[in-house]
Amino acid sequence: MSEFEPKILGFLCNWCSYAGADLAGVSRVQYPPNIRVIRVMCSGRVDPHFIFKAFEMGIDGVAVLGCHIGDCHYQSGNHQAEKKIELTSQALKEVGLQPERLQLDWVSAAEGQRFGQLITSFTDKIRELGPISDIPDYQNKAKLGGNIVGVTRLRWLVGKEYEIFEKGNVYKEEIDQDEYKNIMWQNIEFEFKKELICSALAEEPRMVRDIAEELALPNKLVFDYITEMENEGRIHLVDFDGNLPRYRLAKGGEP
Ligand code: FES
Question: Which of 23, 46, 99, 194 has the fewest CB atoms within 10 Å, i.e. the most exposed one?
């Protein structure tokens, strides 16, 4: 049987890592040919959604490489990248994809050798993890992850995190960073459950009780999420079975 060759996608910042990769090339640094590169202006430009899309398309590992901390040409871009990758890793864990398939690191324009080493060790790690296509239902999981990281509330929390803890909020209040993180992780969990409910409603109208049983969630929790999604216009009440309401996905509410 032929050995598994992982498909690696690298998002490289234009100013440092891409130049570092270029230097690796002209210096003839040896590294595995498994990587395909997308050049971005800054590591902070890499939206979590891009990463889930890559996994959904069958990419086995994603590396995001930017300028070293303090060297970003847009000042805080790589700090933003750190926050986004942290969120993405947490969402990967929540949907059942290995967060180890995602790596954030720094490579300067003078570090061709380092670029080669990072790509070699990351490719080896992904080779050990095996193909993403071996994970049952990986495309659906990646799709759900993409939906989770697209939620406005989460994007806002991630986008503001660096600024809030560097400069404080507008009221100059002290905010506990652990508490802030907990709010984010809880939101990921809530959004994941909402996505599961939407998946359960994808085929036909159903009652709260049936969905709760299928997902092993309390009736009350499912009802609360359905009410929330009804208010968001993602779910509609269709009819009643006896006196129990049945719901279905609204157009555009698909997970
Ligand atoms: S410009 Fe390189 S990480 Fe921002």
Answer: 99
Q: In this predicted structure, what is the pLDDT of residue 251?
A: 74
Q: What is the pTM of this model?
A: 0.91
**Of the options 2.60.480, 3.40.395, 3.30.70, 3.40.50, the CATH number for the domain spanning 8-136:** 3.40.50
The Å distance, Cα 80 to ligand 1 centre, comes to 10
161-175 per-position pLDDT tens digit: 998 888 777 777 778
Which residues, other chains included, contact 142 with Cβ-Cβ below 8 Å and sequence gap of 6+? 52, 53, 55, 56, 95, 97
Residues 6+ positions from 249 with CB-CB distance below 8 Å: 198, 201, 202, 234, 235, 236
106 touches 65 (CB < 8 A): yes
Give me ligand 1 centre to Cα 195, in Å.
33
Q: 69 CA to middle of ligand 1, Å?
A: 9
Q: Could you say which DSSP state residue 202 is in?
A: S
**CA pair distance 21, 106, nearest whole angstrom:** 12
Q: Provide the pLDDT for residue 172.
A: 77
* Ranges under pLDDT 70 in the chain: 1-2, 252-255
Q: Which CATH architecture has domain 151-249?
A: Orthogonal Bundle (1.10)
